[in-house]
Specification:
Elements: H1 2-11, H2 13-33, E1 46-52, H3 58-73, E2 79-87, E3 90-97, H4 103-115, E4 128-129, E5 133-145, H5 151-167, E6 172-179, E7 183-189, H6 191-196, H7 201-210, E8 215-222, E9 225-231, H8 238-242, E10 245-248, E11 254-256, H9 257-260, E12 261-267, E13 272-276, E14 281-290, H10 295-310, E15 318-324, H11 325-355, H12 358-382, H13 388-401, H14 403-419, H15 425-448, H16 459-483, H17 486-494, H18 506-524, H19 526-541, H20 544-549, H21 556-564, E16 585-588, H22 598-613, E17 618-626, E18 640-646, E19 654-658, E20 664-669, H23 672-682, E21 692-693, H24 695-705, E22 711-716, H25 720-735, E23 740-745, E24 751-758, H26 760-765, H27 770-783, E25 784-791, E26 794-802, H28 810-814, E27 817-820, E28 838-841, E29 846-853, E30 857-860, E31 863-872, H29 877-893, E32 898-899, E33 916-918, E34 921-922, E35 933-937
Length: about 950
């Protein structure tokens, strides 16, 4: 069949050349249309269920929202991990699906299961799905800056204008806001004035709710025209609220809200802070891109729309790009393209060197780019993006792609030496092609299918290496086909004239001179060669440490044997999922203790940004503490994420390089590791445990395991206090493991709470119910959301609470008065007070105390977790995980933790089970690192 294909190609030269031209045009078109990205999207299919429940503590959110949702999501088809986060007023449930699950099918199934949960959740709690984006969807971030406008005005511009402008760009899933002040109308009442006017806080709330709204009627006809009825009523300013009548005094005199309360515009409760370059707070925007889009094209569209939208903002408002993945994409693709061109040039030079005939070398030089363009056509049809891995597959294939063509050219040279002048030129080309073409075609097919095992890889391994295998396979297959179609035609056109004999090429003569004696020597001493090869294999793979070092008792002999084991290479090789991709940017993610106040968080964030910005290699720094207004960001208030944009390496200045003792050993540009080490030494703040990583890598790791550091340990169980204690013990153990850069165990019980324990006997004496007391406390202290103003395109909340003087310390809290209704009096939200109300101090109805409780509850598989974050330095990940596992397992078998395979059913307290200590897991997949799980009791 291949012989007939070669004959057909030689007889239909024009058809072959026309088909080649069409192939080239199609390849160029595909090359321009193919999506560009830095690396393949390694994130699993995820669906985020996001629920708001304002004012509720994390433990309440966990018990009443997160837990019911996670237990329901466990039964969703193809769901492999269900991870929950419960924070103050928010719940996040991440449903991670099996590899290959269609993201929109997954969203529809999660939505279907959510519909059956409405009766199990608290009233007015409505879960919703997060954006249809991957874990690496954060592709572009910017900040708004102005010297003429405050943070509240900038945040309003971001929320009510820029966000919607950018959301309309094709491929944008969400635009999240972070930092600044969210405008809010705050009504702070004076309880003494309320008592003087015989009003309850419920009366004020009801009056405000009824004084902010609009209604419409039907229509009336006047003068042969129709007029639609509309009743205006939205409050538009602080003055409108102050004029609201909240009751009547003696003689029917109206009591206005301004007489009993202070009405002002202030910031909403802050759950996120943004900072730029250590110069102060700013307002940020995060653009999240959709599944499978051309990230580079989306970012370009966002930039163009942002430039256009900024023209509509007031004078003096500017934006700064604080993260742009386009730079990484361009660097990655340009580097691979340059290497492909260099490889092609090298192949062409090698052909010229060995063939000594320029026109013959043109055959290989032409076929090489044609095969590459053919692979791009298939890539574009399949939907593969052009990234490091897919282009790397082409780079790997280039060397082998021209093998068949070179052999065919060389064979044609031989035939022309032997038959030149005896046969027609095209007959010589035909005979030479048919002689070796079919064999070479099948040999290329063997190389083509050599990457088939890569297609069996699953999960992140598959998503990482399959693009490389696809493009390598496509390139080799195209080269095999071209070698029996286009190559014979090109050989007929180009291999003409005087062909130099092989023996006249000095390079060939030199290599033959080396080859013959070496072959003679190897064949003469064949047994010595075989024994030597076997000895080398034994030396490389001999498990010295396992067979010799491990059985020896501790002491000098064992230490000497361990040192001797370093000469056996294989057992000393480390293991890692993949080498870290240098993204050109860094991410500083220290861990701090929970319960930090927004004021202190802002101070710490600005200090760290100032320190990092002083490095000459840094272009700018954008710090974020807490969460952005996005379901893709389950960050607590104590979580810092500082994006560090570095200058191009050629702009890095020379610096003094110091050894461990502080001596200057060189003066040159720092390497990335040296820069990170220098930053780590400079940024040392008590209470912060530093961790340095990169943006894309961190997003992928946190999606897969929730852990933000390269290595993490998860301790699972129902008792959070016990989890914190065990996590602290593991932290101390892992800190001693060689290679540990930093380790931090979450203080899951580290939050500070003012707890009100209502005395049921006391409230019963006053005829109160628990709900009535809770209602007063919720409004007076928590700030009850009453209504929402409508100011054009903008919407702002209105809250009601006590004045700060009545809630700033424990004594003030104990003095809060609870209205007690007497006969004929109503003090609920549905009535108006009549008659005189008694006021009972809260200290007579409840105990007020400060307690420790969780600031956030994390769970996996509906079981609460405590996580330990471990940053690794100077060690491979696989080897470090093994050492850490061994250390933890030894402790579990020792006095600190007693291990039992059946501990999950062991007797503890009624309704509880012991926590489990998950062995250290190598992010981003515990299964990939061989992480095993053992149950433990303490």
């Amino acid at each position: 069949m291949l012989t007939r294909l070669i004959d057909f190609s030689l007889k239909n030269k024009f058809l072959v050349l026309a088909a080649t031209a069409a192939l080239v045009l199609g390849g160029v078109y595909a090359l321009k249309k193919i999506p560009l990205d830095a690396i393949p999207d390694l994130s699993d299919t995820q669906v985020i269920v996001y629920t708001e429940w304002p004012g509720q503590a994390p433990q309440i959110v966990q018990d009443q929202v997160t837990y019911p949702i996670t237990t329901k999501m466990l039964s969703v088809p193809a769901a492999k991990v269900v991870r929950g986060y419960s924070f103050y007023g928010f719940s996040f449930v991440y449903v991670i699906f099996e590899d290959g699950t269609d993201p929109y099918w997954a969203r529809s199934r999660v939505l279907e299961y959510l519909n059956g949960l409405q009766g199990s959740l608290p009233a007015n709690v409505a879960p919703r799905l997060g954006p249809d984006a991957t874990g690496v969807g954060w592709a572009f971030m910017y900040s708004l800056n102005s010297k003429k406008h405050d943070l509240a005005e900038l945040r309003s511009m971001q929320d009510w204008f820029l966000r919607y402008q950018l959301s309309s760009v094709e491929g944008v899933a969400e635009v999240a806001s972070v930092g600044g002040h969210v405008k809010q109308y705050q009504i702070t009442v004076d309880p003494h004035r309320l008592h003087a006017y015989n009003l309850s806080i419920s009366d004020v709330a009801m009056a405000v709710q009824k004084s902010n709204g609009e209604v419409g009627g039907r229509s009336v006809e006047m003068g042969e025209k129709e007029f639609i009825l509309r009743v205006r009523g939205y409050a538009q300013s602080v003055g409108d609220f102050r004029k609201i009548a909240v009751g009547r005094g003696p003689g029917g005199t109206p009591i206005q809200l301004g007489e009993v309360a202070n009405v002002q515009v202030g910031p909403d409760m802050r759950r996120g802070i943004a900072e730029l370059n250590g110069e102060g707070e700013t307002v940020g925007g995060i653009v999240v891109v959709r599944y499978g889009v051309d990230t580079r094209q989306v970012i370009q569209g966002v930039k163009a729309r942002l430039d256009q939208a900024m023209k509509s903002l007031p004078e003096g408002v500017e934006y700064t790009i604080v993260y742009d993945r386009t730079a990484l994409i361009d660097r990655a693709v340009e580097t691979l393209q340059a290497k492909l061109i260099e490889e092609s040039i090298v192949v062409a030079l090698i052909c010229l060197l060995f063939l000594m005939h320029f026109r013959s070398a043109l055959v290989a030089i032409i076929i090489l780019p044609v095969a590459v363009l053919a692979s791009f056509i298939i890539m574009n049809t399949q939907g593969l993006s052009s990234n490091i891995m897919s282009l790397g597959g082409i780079a790997i294939a280039i060397g082998a792609m021209v093998d068949a063509v070179i052999i065919m050219i060389e064979n044609a040279h031989k035939h022309m030496e032997q038959d030149g002048g005896k046969k027609p030129h095209w007959d010589i080309i035909r005979d030479a092609s048919i002689e070796v073409g079919p064999t070479l075609f099948y040999s290329l097919l063997v190389i083509t299918v050599s990457f088939l095992p890569v297609f069996t890889l699953q999960a992140q391994e598959g998503r990482m290496f399959k693009p490389l295998a696809f493009t390598k396979t496509y390139s080799m297959a195209a080269a095999a086909l071209l070698s029996v179609t286009l190559a014979p035609v090109l050989m007929g056109f180009f291999i003409r004239g005087k062909i130099p004999a092989e023996g006249k090429n000095p390079v060939n003569r030199f290599l033959i001179w080396l080859y013959h004696p070496m072959i003679d020597l190897v064949i003469r001493f064949r047994w010595a060669v075989i024994i030597g090869a076997a000895a080398i294999i034994a030396w490389v793979f001999f498990p010295w440490n396992a067979l010799v070092v491990a059985p020896l008792p501790g002491g000098g002999v064992k230490n000497f044997a361990a040192k001797l084991g370093r000469v056996f290479p294989y057992q000393n090789l480390g293991s890692e999922f993949m080498p870290p991709l240098y993204e050109g940017d860094l991410l500083y993610m220290p861990t701090t203790f929970p319960g930090i106040s927004p004021t202190k968080a802002r101070e710490v964030l600005q200090q760290t940004d100032q320190m990092i910005r002083t490095f000459p290699e840094v272009h700018h720094v954008f710090g974020k503490m807490g969460r952005a207004e996005s379901a893709t960001d389950p960050a607590p208030m104590d979580m810092i994420e500082t994006t560090i944009m570095l200058k191009p390496e050629e702009e890095w200045p020379a610096a003094d390089i110091k050894d461990l003792e502080g001596k200057v050993v060189a003066h040159r540009r720092r390497t990335l590791d040296e820069l990170v080490a220098a930053m780590n030494s400079a940024v040392q703040i008590p209470g912060l445990t530093n961790a340095w990583t990169m943006p894309i890598k961190t997003r992928i790791d946190m999606l897969a395991t929730g852990i933000k550091t390269p290595v993490g340990i998860k301790v699972a169980g129902p008792n959070l206090a016990e989890l914190e204690r065990i996590a602290g013990q593991i932290e101390a153990l892992v800190h001693r493991v060689p290679g540990t850069g930093s380790v931090f165990a979450e203080r899951v019980m580290g939050g500070n709470y003012v707890e009100f324990d209502i005395d049921r006997d006391a409230i019963a004496r006053y005829g109160l119910t628990v709900g009535e007391v809770q209602e007063v406390l919720q409004v007076a202290l928590g700030g009850m959301p009453l209504t929402t103003t409508v100011e054009g395109l903008e919407r702002y909340g209105v809250i009601l609470r006590y004045d700060r003087d009545y809630r700033e310390n424990l004594e003030a809290l104990r003095d809060i008065v609870i209205p007690v209704k007497s006969a004929g009096t109503s003090s609920t939200m549905s009535g108006t007070a009549t008659g005189q109300m008694a006021q009972v101090p809260l200290s007579q109805l409840a105990k007020v105390r400060v307690v420790a409780a969780p600031m956030g509850v994390k769970s996996e598989g509906a079981v609460p977790n405590a996580w330990i974050y471990v940053d690794v330095q100077g060690s491979d990940i696989g080897g470090y995980v093994q050492r850490a596992q061994q250390t933890v397992n030894d402790a579990l078998r020792g006095s600190r933790c007693s291990s039992s395979s059946s501990s999950s059913t062991s007797t503890r307290s009624p309704g509880s089970r012991p926590p489990s200590c998950s062995s250290p897991c190598h992010s981003p997949s515990s299964a990939r690192s061989g992480c095993s799980t053992s149950s433990a009791t303490t």
